[in-house]
């Protein structure tokens, strides 16, 4: 569809601005999946890229505050993160909650990202969920506007 192709073009335009090789690989794979009509895969890969961006942003700019917030909420169950990969030990939904608590993302952005996470979870597990070009495009657009353009 024209909307799906526009998102792929927008994502390819943004891809040129991504310097981190890991993030770039996730985003490039998401684009290729979307262009090949592999919409569930595009949704999963674009989500992985977005989380990579968020983890690296928090690690680079908010790590001490994030660890303090996580310790406040989870107590001794949270081992303070030292690397961006350590942040991946937290459930993604909880990570988004902590990011909102620190005003890294806003309340409404978090709500949209949680919807995107729910869709990613639906696409990433065996089930009868069907998604098409428009759903994939909308998902990727949400991530473009609220993560990739803002934090990478």
List keywords for this structure.
75% helix; mainly alpha; 152 residues
Rg over CA atoms, rounded to whole Å, is 15 Å
Low-confidence spans = none
Number of helices: 8
Helix content: over 70%
Oligomer: single chain
Shape: globular
What does this molecule look like?
The protein has eight helices and no strands. The two termini are 27 Å apart. It is globular, with a radius of gyration of 15 Å. The model has no long low-confidence stretch (mean pLDDT 92). The chain has 152 residues and is mostly helical.
Q: What is the secondary structure topology, with strand pairs?
A:
Elements: H1 2-15, H2 21-35, H3 39-61, H4 63-74, H5 84-87, H6 92-101, H7 107-123, H8 133-151
Helix pairs in contact: 1-2, 1-8, 2-3, 3-7, 3-8, 6-7, 7-8
Task: Provide a quick synopsis of the model.
With 152 residues, this protein is mainly α. It has helices spanning 2-15, 21-35, 39-61, 63-74, 84-87, 92-101, 107-123, 133-151. Helix 1 packs antiparallel against helix 2, helix 2 packs antiparallel against helix 3 (39-61) and helix 3 (39-61) packs parallel to helix 8.
